[in-house]
Amino acid sequence: MSASASHDPVASGPSTPRRSPPSKDHLAHDIPDNAFPRSFLASGVHCGIKKRGGANDLGLVVSTAEHTSAAACFTKNVFKAAPVLVSQEVLLKFGGRAAAVVVNSGCANAVTGKQGMEDARDMVRTVDALREARTGGTDTADGVAQPVSAGAAPSKTLVMSTGVIGQTLPITNILNGIALAHANLGASFASWQGAAQAFMTTDTFYKLRARTFTLAGKKVRIAGIDKGAGMIHPDMGPPSPSTAPAPPHATLLGLIATDAAVSPSALQSALTFAVERSFNSISVDGDMSTNDTIVALANGASGMERDIDELADPELYTQFRDELTAFATELAKLVVRDGEGATKFVTVSVEGASSFSDAHTIASTISTSSLVKTALYGEDANWGRILAAVGAAPVSNPPDPQKVSVSFLPCDGSTELKLLVNGEPEKVDEVRAKQILQMEDLEIRVVLGEGGESARYYTCDLSHDYVTINGDYRS
C-alpha cells in the first residue's frame, strides 16, 4: 500500500489473518535468592477476591530496616481511586517514610465512595498493626536468619488495588489475607514470586526482576514487580494533595525496592525522572488509568554510610538515578510485551527534536494511533499513517515537513529501511518492509532535524484478541 493510500472501508481485498499472540512464558524468570535487596520480605496469598481458586490476589512487601525512604508517582488523572488517595496521604503525612506496600488484585476499589476510602485505610492500619507487633520475626541475607530491627519505627503502609471497578472490596477476606500474608513473609525467590503473582489481573506472566550494581563502594541490590496488560498509557507524577472523588479503573501498578541508602527527597526526585522515561513512555491502548501507581522503597541495608542527597552528592545521586531509570525501563517494557492481544513489541524513537517534551509527545502520538497499530498488526508498511501522527502531535515547535525522515529498523541488527528522507519518499522495497514487520521486535525511527533532543516510547500492535479480551473483561 502506498504512503498516500487512505483508509477506505469499502475497498475490497483479503482480510487480515487472525494471529495469536506469541508465548510469553520465557519472560517469567527465576531469580537467585541472594539477588534480592537486603532486609525486605515478601509474600503472596489467595484471600478469595479472584474467581480462580488458589490464584494469589493479596501481596505484601515489607522493609525490616530501621529507616526506609519511600517515594511514589501516581496518576495525574483528576479522578483518583481510594488506594491512590490514601497512599498520597501517607507519603505527605510522614515526609516520604513508609516501609510496607500491600496490594490486592481482582477488585480496583474505585468508584466506591466513602466505603472505599475506609477499606483502603483499614488495609493500611492492619499492616501497620502487624508490623508494630512484629518484634521477634526474622529476615534473611544469603540464607542466614537475622532478627528484625528492634528499633524499626511502626511503619506506615502504602496500598494499591487493581481489577474490576465499581465494586467494594471483600474487606473481611482481605484483612484475613493480610494476616496470612504477614505470617508467610520471606526473603526467597518463591516469596517474591508469590507477591508478583498477587499483582496480576489479565497479565499472562508474573513480572519480577532483580539486579545488582555498585554505589559508593557498596554492592547494592534492587528488585521490582509490576503488572499491566491493558488500559496502559500512564501519566504519573509525585504525590500531591487532592480531594477528588474516587473514580474508575486500575491497570498499571509497580513496586521497586532497593537496599541503597537514599533520602526521601532524592528518592522522589530520582523516581519522578525515571518514571517519565519508562512507565510514562509506554502505551498499549492509549487509555490512562485512574489508579496507576509506581512505588519505590529504599532502606539502606546495603551498608552505605549515609543517604544519597541530590544536593550534597550530585554525582552519586545521578548514578543512582540513572540505574533506577534503566531498571524502571526494563520493568516497563515487560508491560508492553504483555499487552493484551499483542503480537509485536515496537520501539518508537523520535530524534532531532527541539525539546524532550516535543520528542516525547510525538512518540506518544505515534504509539497511540489506532491506524498505526492496526497496520503493524496487519504487517502493512503504510508509513503515511506514521507521518500523519507526527503532523498531528500537539507540540510547541511543529516539525518542518521538508526535514522529517522516517525508517523501519529490524531487530536483527540488519540495515534500516528508509521510507522518507528529508520530506522526500523513498522507493520502498515492499518485500523487505514485510520481512521487518513480521518480526516480533522492531523500531520506528523518526528524525525531525530540528535540534538535539530525543525520546523513546514503547508500544505494541492492536489485534483481534485485544477486542475479544476487553469485550468480556468482567466475565
Structure description:
- The chain has 475 residues and is α+β, with helices and mostly antiparallel strands.
- The protein contains 11 helices and 19 strands.
- Helix 1 packs across helix 2.
- The longest helix is centred in the last third of the chain and has 24 residues.
Spell out the key features of this protein.
six-stranded mixed sheet; 19 strands; L-amino peptidase D-ALA esterase/amidase; 24% strand; Ubiquitin-like (UB roll); 11 helices; alpha+beta; seven-stranded mixed sheet
> How many domains in all?
2
User: What structural category arises from helix and sheet content?
Assistant: alpha+beta
**Backbone CA Rg:** 23 Å
Give the low-pLDDT segments. 1-13, 135-152, 242-250
Distinct helical segment count? 11
Strand runs, count: 19
CATH class category of the largest domain: Alpha Beta
CATH topology of the largest domain: L-amino peptidase D-ALA esterase/amidase
Strand ordering within the main sheet: 12-19-14-18-15-16-17
The overall pLDDT, averaged over residues, is 88
Order of helices and strands: EEEHEHEEEHHEEEEHEEHEHHHEEEHEEH
User: Beta-sheet strand percentage?
Assistant: 15-25%
Helix share, percent? 25-40%
| Architecture (CATH level 2) name of the largest domain | 4-Layer Sandwich
Name of the CATH homologous superfamily of the largest domain: L-amino peptidase D-ALA esterase/amidase
Topology:
Elements: E1 40-45, E2 58-63, E3 69-75, H1 82-93, E4 100-107, H2 113-133, E5 138-141, E6 144-147, E7 157-164, H3 171-183, H4 189-198, E8 207-215, E9 218-227, E10 236-237, E11 253-258, H5 264-276, E12 282-283, E13 293-298, H6 314-337, E14 345-353, H7 356-367, H8 370-378, H9 384-392, E15 405-410, E16 417-421, E17 424-425, H10 430-437, E18 441-447, E19 453-460, H11 464-471
Parallel strand pairs: 4-7, 11-13, 12-19, 14-18
Antiparallel strand pairs: 1-2, 2-4, 3-10, 3-13, 5-6, 8-9, 9-11, 14-19, 15-16, 15-18, 16-17
